[in-house]
Amino acid sequence: xxxxxxxxxxxxxxxxxxxxxxxxxxxxxxxxxxxxxxxxxxxxxxxxxxxxxxxxxxxxxxxxxxxxxxxxxxxxxxxxxxxxxxxxxxxxxxxxxxxxxxxxxxxxxxxxxxxxxxxxxxxxxxxxxxxxxxxxxxxxxxxxxxxxxxxxxxxxxxxxxxxxxxxxxxxxxxxxxxxxxxxxxxxxxxxxxxxxxxxxxxxxxxxxxxxxxxxxxxxxxxxxxxxxxxxxxxxxxxxxxxxxxxx
Length: 247
Hints:
Elements: H1 3-14, E1 19-23, H2 25-28, H3 42-45, H4 53-58, H5 60-75, H6 82-92, E2 98-101, H7 107-111, E3 116-118, E4 121-128, E5 134-136, E6 156-160, H8 169-181, E7 184-188, H9 200-206, E8 210-215, H10 220-224, E9 228-231, H11 234-245
């Protein structure tokens, strides 16, 4: 990567009319959050079939201890890293309209980002599958498995998207609408393999926008979509870029 690419990317963000960030697992790895796919990913150690909504409904006593171990014991303790902080700073300074994320860890909000579209939901909320009420995860005890609804005693499910479950339609519509209005998209830590979220940068590109990509390795975006590819760790490259944008 040349400094030239970094400077050009910074100028694009500086001059953007409406910029968005599109993030994935790679931005949270440095916070100790394991990715789901690829070497060492969650799905190499656990059967994804256990996290199908219908399987969960039939076998909550089996699935809930796995949910607690994989998601709440690990993600619940994670802290934002400099990449999350950098995006929050861009928003505070009026240089970023929103973060559109595939992550469920809530680290963007913990870092101070205010406008966050969570494509795949969040571990910060739970929903009762019987009375459909939502609860903050912090208000639910995970001492007893499976945890029960504080209101009706029914089955609680973390408010993130399970297999065989559709993504939140309101999030999809709002994120897609914002992407159509954006002239810059900053990709951080994702190759966009999961649809429909992965289409977000393409929507910006198809409308004539500029795509900046920060990833450890080249992805499907690198050759066909990205205008500037900045290779490296999110926790290093995002602060470098933000520093130039705000200087």
